[in-house]
Amino acid sequence: MTAQLLTWLAWFITGAHNARWIGCAPELKQRIYFANHTSNLDALILWASLPFEIRRRTRPVAAADYWTGDPFRRYLAGKVFNAILIERKKVTVSTNPIPQILDAMGAKHSIIIFPEGKRNPGPEPGEFKSGLYHLASDRPDVELVPVYLQNLNRILPRGEFLPVPVLGSIYFGTPMKINADERKADFLQRARLAVDSLREP
Length: 201
Known about the structure:
This protein is an alpha/beta fold. The protein is 36% helix and 16% strand.
């Protein structure tokens, strides 16, 4: 019930149910959805934009320090989104998030990640961190789907608590995969441009 209410709320404040599948169709296959990151609502809104059967098999990757900050967020992360909570501030060998994410994906779960690693208020995605490269290298069988979230930074600007209803747009691009012997820097730049190419002027 909570999941459905949050989905309706996301649809109401953003129009997330009108996601535009430009480069692919919504399919029940294992995928890594990677998107630009401008708002604390990004994971919810991207997740809510997916059709129900796909949504229930898709797990957002989220920062543990944020989503365990209070009981309500812990409830949402654990009971509603089934999020994969990772350490982002004091990463060590034992807290390396890549094995944790791969294990959580298993053979059926898709994931949502934000390769910038932090919110970027501008329209152009910032540099991607290396996590997407390692996931793509370790799971070359999984499609990588670029996603661009437009206008979401206006719905919940940094420092604000209550969202403001603003029509946002979500664009799903053409799936991509890592090329054989592709350098990390080249792959990450190609992935970032794949997201940015979906942005409307």
